[in-house]
Every structure is written in structure tokens, then in C-alpha cells.
């Protein structure tokens, strides 16, 4: 057909989507939802009746899973909302550096060195105190939408 060569530049990343669509009316308390581009855990859902202008509306109150801020959104119950893919992974804590980064041991035996200590003061002191005492600590890392943060701590005994 044509003797010309075509070159296409792709800017898309290959990989799974950060979110998936779900009908607003099916999202329940303790589920996840994206509000204002942030991954959130739903703490309250209320649904209004269908009114003069059609749709029943869902009022979501949710807490950002990374910074703890409260966000709200109102969506018609028949419309789709973005729901983030949220994963929790446990890693063994190896070291804490002076600049606030942690060194974690993965299941495959390699290390993960790109995570900072959590901003939550109670969790931060638990991790630092436990590490200073020489305890074997396992941290739970929550990841969603390209963000990761330490969200919990388990003490599996002394080293």
C-alpha cells in the first residue's frame, strides 16, 4: 500500500491500571474510593432518594489512607466511581538510616530501600524504640495509586 515508514512514540506505561470503575451505589463502608485524586477508605455512606431530577445520590465520607485527611464526595448512585487497587505487603525491617529511610527485606531476599519512616508519631516511636531495643520487627506497607507508606508494625520477638 504505502512505502512510507511510520514511527509512533508511546508515552503510556505498560502495566495494570491504578484504579478500576465501580458503580457508586455498590460501594460500602470500609471499602475504598478515589476522591480528588487520592486513595481513601470509606467511613460513611448515605444514599438520598431519587428526587425531582432523577438519580439517587450517594454521599461518601472517606479518610485518605496516606495522610489521614477527611474527604467528601456526592455521586449519583448509578454512575461509576474510581476504586484504587490497594495492596498490603509485610516486610522485615533491617535498618533505619539517619535521613529517615528504612531498609526492608522482601520475600525474595532482596532489599527495598525507597521508603521513608511513617509520619504518624505513635507508629514512628514504636518503630524507632523497637529497633533500638534490637527486636525483630515486621512492617506492613500499604500501596495504592503509585504511593507507598508504612501503616502497621508487628513485633515477632527479639533477634
From TrEMBL:
The UniProt regions of compositional bias labelled Basic and acidic residues, in chain numbering, are: 1-12
One Pfam family, short name please?
A: eIF-5a
Q: Where is the Translation initiation factor 5A C-terminal domain?
A: 85-154
Q: Which InterPro entries match?
A: IF5A-like (IPR001884), IF5A-like_N (IPR048670), IF5A_C (IPR020189), NA-bd_OB-fold (IPR012340), Rib_uL2_dom2 (IPR014722), Trans_elong_IF5A_hypusine_site (IPR019769), Translation_prot_SH3-like_sf (IPR008991)
Per UniProt, the keywords (alphabetical) are: Hypusine, Initiation factor, Protein biosynthesis
What post-translational events are described? eIF-5A seems to be the only eukaryotic protein to have a hypusine residue which is a post-translational modification of a lysine by the addition of a butylamino group.
- Residue ranges annotated as transmembrane are none
Q: What does this protein do?
A: Translation factor that promotes translation elongation and termination, particularly upon ribosome stalling at specific amino acid sequence contexts. Binds between the exit (E) and peptidyl (P) site of the ribosome and promotes rescue of stalled ribosome: specifically required for efficient translation of polyproline-containing peptides as well as other motifs that stall the ribosome. Acts as a ribosome quality control (RQC) cofactor by joining the RQC complex to facilitate peptidyl transfer during CAT tailing step.
UniProt-listed PANTHER family: TRANSLATION INITIATION FACTOR 5A FAMILY MEMBER (PTHR11673)
| Protein name in the entry | Eukaryotic translation initiation factor 5A
